[in-house]
C-alpha cells in the first residue's frame, strides 16, 4: 500500500541513479535518516532539482511505496553560498558526513538535525577563520548529540588547566591524562574552550565582535591543522572506524586555503 507523508530535513548525500534520477540521504526531524529516490531531477529546470541538492533543507513530501520517493519539495534554505567557496563546501560536507554516520535509521535525533542546519548557516555567513571556528563548535556539538560530548571549563577530574584531549575522558591535566588522545597547544586549548563555552557567537559571523576576533587570531594555520587532526581522530574513536570522506574533506581544505 502506498502512503504519503511530509517531513522536514536536510540532504546529507546525493548520488546519481540511472540517467535522470538521484538517490538522496535525508536526515529528518520526524523520520530520522532515510534514503529516497528523486525522479527526473537531473534535467535542466527540473521541478525537484533542489530536492536532490546537497545541503538543501526543507519540507519533503514522500511517497512510501516499494521504494520511498520524493514527490514535492518546499525549500527552506538552500545554502547556495556554501557551494561558491571550496573551504565552506568541504567544512559543510564534513558536517553532513558526521550527521550521516552517527544518525541511525529508525532513530530520531532532532537536536542533531537542528545543529547541522545551524552549522551550515554559520559556515555560510562566516568569514576567514570564523568558518573553522563555527565548524569546530558545531562538530563538537553534533558529537555530543550522539553521546560523545566533551566538556570545557578545565580538567574533567580536578578542574585545573587541561593539557590533553583524552578521547575517553575529555580535557585533562597532566596528572589525570588517561587513554587515547592528543596533547593540546596553548592556542588549540583556548580555541577549544571558546568553542565549548555556552557563549553566543551567532551575531559574530562577520567578526566585528572584538572578543571573537581575539579567538580567531589564535586559529592560525598550524592551530587549524592541529585541531582538525585531533577532531578527525576523535571522530574515528567515537564511530569506531576511520572515515575516508572526512579525511579527504579536512585535508583538501587545509591544503587549498
Ligand atoms: Zn586534573
- How would you sum up the major sheet? 5 strands, antiparallel
Q: Kindly state the mean pLDDT as a whole number? A: 93
Structural class: alpha+beta
Write down the secondary-structure element order.
EEEEEHHHEEEHHHH
CATH fold title of the largest domain = de novo design (two linked rop proteins)
Strands in their spatial order, largest beta sheet: 3-2-1-4-5
CATH superfamily of the largest domain: Recombination protein O, C-terminal domain
CATH architecture of the largest domain: Up-down Bundle
- Our count of helices gives 7
Distance between the termini: 51 Å
Tell me what portion of residues adopts beta-strand conformation.
Answer: 15-25%
Provide the CATH top-level class of the largest domain. Mainly Alpha
Instruction: Give the strand tally.
Output: 8
Q: Specify Rg, calculated over alpha carbons.
A: 19 Å
Ligand roster: zinc ion
Enumerate the spans where pLDDT stays under 50 for 5 or more consecutive residues: none
Number of domains: 2
**3D shape:** globular
Amino acid at each position: 500500500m502506498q502512503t504519503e507523508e511530509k517531513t522536514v530535513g536536510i540532504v546529507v548525500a546525493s548520488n546519481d541513479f540511472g540517467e535522470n534520477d538521484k538517490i538522496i540521504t535525508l536526515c529528518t526531524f520526524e523520520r530520522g535518516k532515510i534514503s529516497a529516490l528523486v525522479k527526473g531531477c537531473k534535467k535542466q529546470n527540473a521541478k525537484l532539482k533542489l530536492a536532490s541538492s546537497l545541503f538543501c533543507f526543507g519540507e519533503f513530501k514522500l511517497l512510501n511505496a516499494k521504494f520511498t520517493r520524493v514527490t514535492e519539495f518546499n525549500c527552506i534554505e538552500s545554502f547556495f553560498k556554501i557551494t561558491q567557496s571550496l573551504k565552506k563546501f568541504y567544512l559543510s560536507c564534513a558536517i553532513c558526513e558526521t550527521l550521516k554516520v552517527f544518525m541511525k535509521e529508525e532513530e530520531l535525533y532532532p537536536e542533531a538535525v537542528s545543529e547541522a542546519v545551524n552549522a551550515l548557516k554559520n559556515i555560510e555567513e562566516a568569514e576567514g577563520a570564523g568558518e573553522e571556528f563555527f565548524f569546530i563548535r558545531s562538530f563538537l556539538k553534533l558529537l555530543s548529540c550522539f553521546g560523545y560530548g566533551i566538556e570545557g571549563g578545565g580538567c574533567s577530574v580536578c578542574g585545573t588547566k587541561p593539557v590533553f584531549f583524552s578521547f575517553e575522558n575529555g580535557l585533562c591535566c597532566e596528572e589525570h591524562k588517561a587513554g587515547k588522545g592528543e596533547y593540546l597547544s596553548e592556542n588549540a586549548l583556548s580555541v577549544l574552550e571558546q568553542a565549548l563555552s555556552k557563549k553566543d557567537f551567532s551575531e559574530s559571523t562577520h567578526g566585528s565582535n572584538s572578543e571573537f576576533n581575539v579567538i580567531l587570531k589564535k586559529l592560525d594555520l598550524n592551530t587549524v591543522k592541529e585541531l582538525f587532526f585531533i577532531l578527525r581522530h576523535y571522530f574515528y574513536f567515537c564511530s569506531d572506524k576511520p572515515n575516508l570522506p572526512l579525511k579527504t574533506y579536512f585535508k583538501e581544505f587545509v591544503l587549498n586555503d
